[in-house]
């Protein structure tokens, strides 16, 4: 009886493993598509913030700057940059280190200008 139970248990274990592998293979396309989109979207974030930093430093335009927002953005980008460093994720490094520097430059520029 024990041998029969082991065979049944082993059989269900194999089926479970095949089910998990099938699920991973189905997600493989989604992950690679998302990965490709992140290669484009990630570096665009600092590019989108660069004009604000430029306006603050070159033109001294701090009128529309919400300081609390930029401080929060600086803190969160600092945390994400450290996460990227700890996990050695190059894509996150390319995104969050420039993002942190730009966010901090807006905050500093707010006080300097």
Q: What are the key terms here?
A:
90% helix, Monooxygenase, mainly alpha, 113 residues
Tell me what the structure shows:
With 113 residues, the protein is an all-alpha fold. It has one domain: Monooxygenase. The chain has helices at residues 2-59, 67-87, 90-112. α1 (2-59) packs parallel to α3 (90-112) and α2 (67-87) packs antiparallel against α3 (90-112). It is elongated, with a radius of gyration of 24 Å.
Q: What is the general shape?
A: elongated
E-strand count:
0
Q: Compute the number of helices.
A: 3
CATH architecture level-2 label? Up-down Bundle
Please state roughly what percent of the residues sit in beta strands, choosing from under 5%, 5-15%, 15-25%, 25-35%, 35-45% or over 45%: under 5%
Q: What would the CATH topology be?
A: Monooxygenase
| Gyration radius, rounded | 24 Å
For the record, the CATH class is Mainly Alpha
The chain-level structural class is mainly alpha
Total number of distinct structural domains: 1
Q: State the end-to-end CA separation.
A: 83 Å
Helix content: over 70%
| Oligomer designation | single chain
Largest β sheet strand count, sense and barrel closure: none
Tell me the series of helices and strands, N- to C-terminal: HHH
What are the low-pLDDT stretches, counting only 5+ consecutive residues below 50?
Answer: none
Q: What's the average pLDDT?
A: 83
């Amino acid at each position: 009886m024990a041998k029969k139970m082991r065979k049944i248990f082993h059989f269900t274990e194999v089926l479970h493993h095949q089910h998990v592998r099938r699920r991973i293979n189905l997600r493989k396309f989604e992950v690679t598509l998302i990965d490709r989109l992140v290669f484009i979207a990630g570096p665009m974030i600092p590019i989108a913030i660069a004009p604000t930093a430029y306006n603050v430093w070159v033109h001294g335009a701090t009128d529309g700057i919400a300081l609390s927002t930029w401080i929060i953005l600086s803190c969160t980008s600092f945390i994400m940059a450290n996460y990227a460093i700890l996990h050695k994720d190059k894509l996150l490094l390319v995104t969050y280190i420039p993002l942190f520097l730009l966010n901090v430059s807006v905050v500093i520029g707010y006080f300097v200008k």
